[in-house]
């Protein structure tokens, strides 16, 4: 097993570090010589898209969080309505799905029972099924009309890292492809987002190269009882994944909420010992995040912001900041999650937890 860890102490750290390579692979498989996205083998034509009146994304755990980001991307780029459900809810709520639905299942293993059963339910109602899967030939892949593989390579650690970032890349590629077909984005925008995606492996590497900063932060915070994550827009979707990563490996009670919802309850919990990690990467929402951060700091809680280099928030005096490289707002989740994966890892390591196999959790949940 040690040999398979390639010199790392844990698979989780190995897989975090494999992300630049995995993302590059995902992109290379889907971008043709002409610089355009190719769906080889997947039939998604303009006529197909015209037949669908909505997209329904279903998944569990981390894959569900990738689905939340997918909704932002598809709605923005392809201008189609998207619903996202956790599979265990979808399958029991008599979902409104028919032959006009494009059903997208996201699953690393392709064996998660709830996701598989949801897929069958959607299929039986006539939906077209496209899946975003990592394990080639898995049940979800076999039962789908089309498969968009993530090509992340085997993921061993229970806490998902490279599967998530490659799922994000797939969702962006799908969103862009659909937007292009439907004429809801310009040629320039298409090229710009693709260029940004191609730049992510290097940017992720830059974050990894500064892992010691995150290790330091983890050493200061590892013995906390609870940590909050907040964000707006696409950052709120990432906040859920940050929180899940932290709690599954460190057992710290972490909680994520859309920053605008704080005032409807959660702000009541803010007191001097509280730690809040504020994801603030969206330029167009910066003013709003700024106010949220100030509201929390006014209760003397401690805020750590994750933001782009040079952002207005990174200049606030005495605010602890984790910087990610500059990027287009749309693709920031691929970067934002990386320091938070490292944070979860280092916190768990400081606490002496069994990082690759957290208690009570399984890599793939094939039972109800
Ligand atoms: C388990 C794993 C998670 C994963 C979820 C969904 O809970 O521990 O890491 O996100 O299942 O798995 P899937 O294979 O369908 O993506």
From TrEMBL:
GO terms for cellular component: cytosol. The keyword Mitochondrion does not apply. Its EC number is 2.6.1.16. It comes from the Bacteria. It is found in: Cytoplasm. One of its GO terms (biological process) is UDP-N-acetylglucosamine metabolic process. GO terms for molecular function: carbohydrate derivative binding; glutamine-fructose-6-phosphate transaminase (isomerizing) activity. Coiled coil: none annotated. Homodimer. Catalyzes the first step in hexosamine metabolism, converting fructose-6P into glucosamine-6P using glutamine as a nitrogen source. This is Glutamine--fructose-6-phosphate aminotransferase [isomerizing]. It comes from Aminicella lysinilytica. The gene is glmS. The chain holds residues 242 to 609 of 609 of the full protein.
């Amino acid at each position: 097993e040690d040999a398979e860890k390639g010199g790392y102490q844990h698979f989780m750290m190995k897989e975090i570090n494999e992300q630049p390579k995995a993302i590059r692979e995902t992109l290379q498989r889907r971008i043709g010589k002409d610089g355009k996205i190719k769906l080889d083998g997947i039939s998604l034509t303009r006529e197909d898209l015209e037949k669908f009146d909505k997209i329904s994304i279903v998944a569990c755990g981390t894959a569900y969080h990738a689905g939340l980001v997918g909704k932002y991307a598809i709605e923005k780029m392809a201008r189609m309505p998207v619903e996202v459900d956790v599979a265990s809810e979808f399958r029991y709520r008599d979902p409104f799905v028919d032959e006009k639905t494009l059903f997208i299942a996201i699953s690393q293993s392709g064996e998660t029972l709830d996701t598989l059963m949801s897929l069958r339910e959607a299929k039986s109602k006539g939906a077209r099924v496209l899946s975003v899967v990592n394990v080639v030939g898995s049940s979800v892949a076999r039962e789908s009309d089309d498969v968009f593989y993530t090509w992340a390579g085997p993921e061993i650690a229970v806490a998902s890292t490279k599967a998530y970032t490659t799922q994000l890349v797939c969702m962006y590629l799908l969103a862009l492809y659909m937007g292009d077909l439907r004429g809801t984005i310009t040629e320039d925008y298409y090229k710009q987002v693709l260029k940004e995606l191609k730049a992510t492996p290097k940017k992720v590497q830059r974050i990894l190269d500064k892992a010691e900063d995150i290790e330091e932060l983890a050493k200061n915070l590892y013995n906390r009882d609870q940590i909050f994550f907040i964000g707006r827009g696409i950052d709120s979707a990432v906040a859920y994944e940050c929180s899940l990563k932290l709690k599954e490996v460190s057992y710290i009670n972490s909680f994520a909420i859309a920053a605008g919802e704080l005032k409807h309850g959660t702000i009541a919990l803010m007191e001097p010992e509280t730690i809040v990690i504020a994801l603030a990467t969206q330029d167009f929402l910066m003013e709003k995040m700024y106010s949220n951060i100030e509201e929390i700091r006014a209760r003397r809680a401690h805020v750590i912001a994750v933001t782009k280099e040079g952002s207005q928030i990174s200049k606030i005096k005495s605010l602890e900041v984790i910087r990610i490289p500059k990027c287009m707002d749309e693709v920031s989740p691929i970067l934002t999650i990386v320091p938070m994966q490292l944070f979860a890892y280092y916190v768990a390591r400081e606490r002496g937890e069994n990082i690759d196999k957290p208690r009570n959790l399984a890599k793939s949940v094939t039972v109800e």
